[in-house]
Amino acid sequence: xxxxxxxxxxxxxLSGPLLAILLAKKGYKVEIYESRTDMRTxxxxxxxxxxxxxxxxxxxALRSAGMDEIVMKEALPMEGRIIHDKTGNTKFMAYSxxxxxxxxxxxxxxxxxxxxxxxxxxGIKIHFNMKCTHADFxxxxxxxKNYETGKISTETATAIIGTDGANSAIRQTMFENxxxxxxxxxxxxxxxxxxxxxxxxxxxxxxxxxxNGLHIWPRGEYMLIALPNFDGSxxxxxxHPFNGENGFDALTTPEKIQAFFExxxxxxxxxxxxxxxxxQTNPTGSLATIKCYPWQVNGRFCLVGDSSHAVVPxxxxxxxxxxxxxxxxxxxxxxxKGDWSKIFTKYQSSRKKDADAIGDLAEENxxxxxxxxxxxxxxxxxxxxxxxxxxxxxxxxxxxMVTFKDKLPYSVAKSLGTxxxxxxxxxxxxxxxxxxxDLDGLFRELQEI
Length: 449
Description:
The protein is of the alpha/beta class.
């Protein structure tokens, strides 16, 4: 293994700096190129900072880089979903029946800054305002445009890794060479978008609603969620159709916006004082699932994270899946002693099915959060799942398998979890007395699925 080899990483978002840290700690010379300006020195516009739900897979990846303790100091635990109905009543649904299993709310920007700072401490150079415009697969090089000077430059490296997100320039070059690479690509948009809102902190930094939960206002066609921040505020996101009577395209005046929220989310009116301003000012984002293959070219170029498998945010696994990519790729660097052809080939073949699985699960969970959490049958299923988890250490719900079992591949969690879900929904459909359920017998039946 020649650790003096130069590695270029495209993208200084979340997975880029984490992967750079992992490689630098092995002795590689790593440089990161980022199209945006340095977020640590610039004002970042509001409206696109959906909080992240950090869970076991992401924490394990951070631990492999020695970053878990510093990151977890910035995270707030969320023990379960808190469901709000139209009358202001709430219902708590624990994420797990086992003690200590929860997800963690963390600021995207705050986490990004922690990772970039650590990368620079290790001597990793981050080149900002450098837009990757093209990849040359024959010459192991990439072309950049400096947004500040307009200068075009070309850089070469032993390995070039695209962690440049859903709009990846490396993936775009693969797409342009589709026939030669036999490159497959799909991008499936939801008919829903999102808009960020904000619940400010109360007096002396107090929380205006319960801080240790992920708040959901499910309303069928639309859904509001809120995740806590350290300063007592909540990042609120409205997931909403673009079209229709009350779609984003129809909510065009303050009167329509106010009337819509008074009808659908009356209990948030008083705690989002800048509702009208934020709704009309903050951008409306789109939601898409991206799948592609292959992820590597010539054993020299590789896609990691959202550049190869962008997912919608409804399972809270986008960042966790990308971090898991980084950990697995790092382990393969050790396994194959720096043979990048073997590393990238094994990485893509072993990871592809799991990336597809979490993409599918994330879309499915959108409908669960939007519709099913308010369904009495689903509520009974969740009660039974938490009781099973509390009494039988070997039982994991589908959600728990995905979120807390970091050694279980996503594809296995999806397959087994879906079978369990179907069985329990059928079981609960005509169930009238949860306390009369024979948990021992139910557990045995689930073990036989």
